[in-house]
Structure formats: C-alpha cells, structure tokens
From TrEMBL:
<keyword id="KW-0547">Nucleotide-binding</keyword>
<keyword id="KW-0175">Coiled coil</keyword>
<dbReference type="GO" id="GO:0005524">
    <property type="term" value="F:ATP binding"/>
</dbReference>
<dbReference type="InterPro" id="IPR036890">
    <property type="entry name" value="HATPase_C_sf"/>
</dbReference>
<dbReference type="GO" id="GO:0004673">
    <property type="term" value="F:protein histidine kinase activity"/>
</dbReference>
<dbReference type="Pfam" id="PF02518">
    <property type="entry name" value="HATPase_c"/>
</dbReference>
<dbReference type="InterPro" id="IPR000014">
    <property type="entry name" value="PAS"/>
</dbReference>
<keyword id="KW-0418">Kinase</keyword>
<keyword id="KW-0808">Transferase</keyword>
<feature type="domain" description="PAC">
    <location>
        <begin position="29"/>
        <end position="81"/>
    </location>
</feature>
<dbReference type="InterPro" id="IPR001610">
    <property type="entry name" value="PAC"/>
</dbReference>
<feature type="domain" description="Histidine kinase">
    <location>
        <begin position="85"/>
        <end position="290"/>
    </location>
</feature>
<dbReference type="InterPro" id="IPR035965">
    <property type="entry name" value="PAS-like_dom_sf"/>
</dbReference>
<feature type="coiled-coil region">
    <location>
        <begin position="123"/>
        <end position="150"/>
    </location>
</feature>
<dbReference type="InterPro" id="IPR013656">
    <property type="entry name" value="PAS_4"/>
</dbReference>
<dbReference type="InterPro" id="IPR050980">
    <property type="entry name" value="2C_sensor_his_kinase"/>
</dbReference>
<dbReference type="InterPro" id="IPR005467">
    <property type="entry name" value="His_kinase_dom"/>
</dbReference>
Amino acid sequence: IWEWLYPDEDYRREITEKVGDILKGEEIERYETIIQCKSGEEKVISWTSHPLRNEEGEIIGSIALGSDVTEQKEAEERKEFLNTLLRQDLRSKCQTLSGYLQLLEDADLSDEHREYLRKAVAAGREADEVLELARELEEIEETKWVAERDLVKVLEQVMEDISNLAESGNIEIEKNYSESIGSVKGDYSLNTLFSQILKTRIQTSGCDKIEIEAEKKNGKILVKVEDNGAGLSQDIVDLFSRKPYRGVTAGAGGARYYMIGEIGKHNQAEIEAHDSELGGARFDIHLEKA
C-alpha cells in the first residue's frame, strides 16, 4: 500500500522515516503529505499524532489522525494567485497614474490646483508603498530562520534609512536608550518593522516629533515609539489587540498597520498601540531577549 500511496521512491522514503519517528514517540501537528488515490488523483492529507503509553509511561504505540485538506489548500492557492494578480494590476495602474500626474506638474496650475496635485502624487506614492510592503511581507513570511540581532544597530540603521524622509518633513527624532541594551530575537525583517512604524507615522500622522525609548522589562526588551501627531482610531488600536476587524479602517492606514502587526508576529514581537502623552500615538514593541 505504501508504494501505491507514495509512488515516488524518494518521497516514500521520507514518509517512512517520519513514520518511524512517530512510532518512537514524536508528536506532530498538521504534518502534510500528498497521497495518490486509486484513480490517480492526488490528495493532501494533514496528520496529527500522539504517542500511546502504558501505566509505566513507556511508549507502546501511536495514534494518528489524517484529514483531507485538499480543497482547503486549493482554495488557499487560488486566493494567493488572485492576490498576486491584483497586486500586479494595481501596481501597473499606480505607475500609470503617477506618470500622468508628473505630466501635470509642468502645467500652468493655480496654487489651489497645484496643492491638489501634490496630494494626489502623495496618495499615489503611498498606495505604491503599501503594495510593495505586501510583496515584502510575503517574502518575510517565507523566512524560517531566527537570528540574534543587536537592537541598537537595528535602530541606528533604521534611522539612517529614513533620515531623508524625516529631514524633508522637519521631523525631530529623539533617542533614549542605552548602547548596551542588548540583543533580541528576530531576522532581517526586524529593520522593516521599525522603519514601517516610523514611515507610516511620518507620512500619515502630521507629527513633527518622534521619541524612541528602549528598556529591559519583564524578561523582554520593550521599545516605545511615540509621536505628537494625530492619534489612532480605535479600529487601528484593535488591529494590534487582535480584536475582530469591523471593516472601517479604510483611509486610515489599516492595511499598513495590519502588515506591521504581521511582521511583528513573525519576529516573535508583541505590539500594543496606545495614545501618547505627546498627543499622538505610542507603539509598545515587546521583543524576546536573545
């Protein structure tokens, strides 16, 4: 039956080794295999197993449960394919829109209409950045390794990367943390996490001051990023608390804040959003110490 279910010899050997590990007591959750049915059709089976023990605690066997998740996987693949097409189509339209807006910059416009043009260009640029962040998030979620990152080096690199944006907006950034704060768990996207928080606040909140603090707290390292811009709506705050989405964050940066939260989860970071004593928003990022 093994040769029938798993006709490929190399794949069958891999599955056989996994079964051997299960019989030795290994527990698995949602381990997927592809089996071939009698009709030749392939099915994706998700397996969960637990060892069976006697009264002395010795392993005497294992119980495994397999569920057919073929339709679910196909639905996920269709959804991902559609999302990819939508991103490509929207990016193409954003580039076309940007081209037309650039042509208008040479036109003889009144001050009022030139201000409208400026806002349209900024909105188009932000839409393109959201699409790029969505593409980047997809790559980030495929990364499986976790490294030891020097937090100070991460923050300094991020502030260097956004320095031009901060200077053009006359944004004052204050730092308050020790050079020896230590290292945290995360991968390369830890830089993306902090740069996106700062970029989003600079571009959408109207702030002119940002404070960054870091301290050791409750066995973790807490980084606080707060500003004096516009506060966050309750719906944005709820995105970080994992409360049900009510569908009213459109136009308030909901997509960007959601993706920031997902990048945080990928780096084992807990993010909380609060009102800031400066008058704007405060993000508390709890990072695992390395």
